[in-house]
């Protein structure tokens, strides 16, 4: 589902008639400019650390401000939220167990640089675009991973 911003994504989920869950993975990313002064190079290198995840039902009155406030209550150090949606094809509600499995998959994909299909928003709810490539082969979820 494509949308211009968070509220539009929620509205499309609600209008679809299927019970969708909003899936969130909150990360802290630090970026360093990898180019030499004077280079015409937009490439930046960064380190991404998954902090926590959450999920909730898409509801008509859900706003990004609501998500930000709840996230800050858990850990205010996040600076990017990776968002996906989940729904069952038979129109049944996604269970908590199904949502947790989706979140595990999202975390794994984020740490391996496979972020296509996810929406990335900064703390202000503005959309971000990244090309990700893992340059650290560590499998430890606590180890920050480098992407660029």
Explain what you see.
There is one protein chain. By secondary structure, the protein is of the alpha+beta class. It has one domain. 25% of the residues lie in helices and 29% in strands. The chain contains 3 helices and 6 strands; from the N terminus they run αββαβαβββ. It has helices at residues 6-15, 64-74, 96-111; strands at residues 21-33, 44-57, 80-86, 119-122, 127-128, 145-147. It has a 6-stranded antiparallel beta sheet, with helices on one face. A hairpin with a 4-residue loop joins strand 4 (119-122) and strand 5 (127-128).
Which whole number gives the mean pLDDT?
A: 82
Share in β-strands: 25-35%
The arrangement of helices and strands along the chain is HEEHEHEEE
| Rg (CA only) | 16 Å
| Count of runs of 4 or more consecutive helical residues | 3
Structural class: alpha+beta
Strand order of the largest sheet: 5-4-3-1-2-6
Number of strands: 6
As a percent range, the share of helical residues equals 25-40%
**Total individual domains:** 1
Give the biggest beta sheet. Answer: 6 strands, antiparallel
Poorly predicted regions: 35-41, 143-148
